[in-house]
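FORM 7B: Structural annotation worksheet

SECTION A. Query
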Amino acid sequence: MPCHIIGVLDNGIAGLTPEALAHLRGADLVIGGKRTLALFADQLRAEAQIRDLTGQLREVPDWIREAQGQGRRVVVLATGDPLCHGIAGTLQARLTPGTYEVIPNLSTVQLACARLGLAWQDMKIVSVHRGDAGEWQAGAGPEHGLYPVLRAVDRNDRLVILTSPENTPDRIARLLVAEGLDAGLRLAVAERLARDDERIISDCTVGEAAGRRFADPNVLLLWREVPRQPPVLFGLADETYRQRRPERGLITKREVRAVALARLALRADSMVWDIGTGSGALGLEAARLCPEGHVHAIEQNAADVEIAAHNRRRSGVHNYSLIQGQAPVGLDAWPDPDAVFIGGSGGQLAELIRLCLERLAPQGRLVVNLVTLENLGVAIKRLKAAGAVWDITQIQTSRGRPILDKHRLAAENPVWILCAWMDE
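SECTION B. Predicted structure
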């Protein structure tokens, strides 16, 4: 007999179909969280065994298989639609097809959107139903539990966020304020859906919500009435970025950026290292090209770190983390990269090439920009010693400059773009 995974709401048996209620009342083993078990305590057979799955989700498939082996009828209670960020998605990966059936209910996403009259078919659904992520710190990266929320807000204009008692709407609102994403967003919180004390809050701004508490359980909705224009992904004018003045700005020029980014062979989910980031131009454009990935950047000069941080805020890029330091110190804390760009080495070029090739993911690419013959020689020697495959391109561009009522071409400094990878 198959295990029945039944979606339930906080209105108890009023929200169940006759079929679901019959399976529940006839079950020999009922598995659920504390709240869902309490909702149906008076509907269970006196001899039925009850198991609380709180903190024991990994054990549930074994409980089900053991009970089925004994010929017992099993019901698992889940909130709303068990296949919408619910327990059924976890269980189906560990149970044999045909040994379970899902009886869905209305999802809390559907209910929340219905209360507000919002179509939900194009809503991005994000769940933070996990451990306490802690407060967001500006500039945090994928290691933080709320990072998926940040990335989802970056990329979508309509979202539903399934919260938890720790990762609350006010905490998420503070993240949005810290990252400058609150402007233009409307917010609503659907509290205690399907209960007698249900309440929908839609009269506060994101900033106001950051200092307000909401009744649990709840669902957070965010949407923009005026959708944003998609950003330019790369090839921005050099003047778009703040640079160090009055010294010549440490920036990879637009034409060179375009070729270097092409040689990095980026994917949507690439993990990128940007070593010697300078103004941050190349790393920030790489982050736009990798919306599901992340860029880790390092720069030793404090003034340039401040400039790169300013450019990050101004560009609205959030999948980009920046630290001050002299590589390779600090790189051991970064995840292995799919692509590495070295724009500045601080005299550690040979060691950086060695380390990057060792850490580079399969089919990954290392790109080094060089402007001196001496560093070119160091790089090639190191690549040969490592047994890497490599090629080199020289970029020599000229830009138009006015001269009286006419224009001339002024040459930019030549740059060697060295691309390397390890043969499989």
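SECTION C. Observations
DSSP finds 13 helices and 19 strands in the chain. The chain has a mean pLDDT of 94.

SECTION D. Sign-off
Analyst initials: ____
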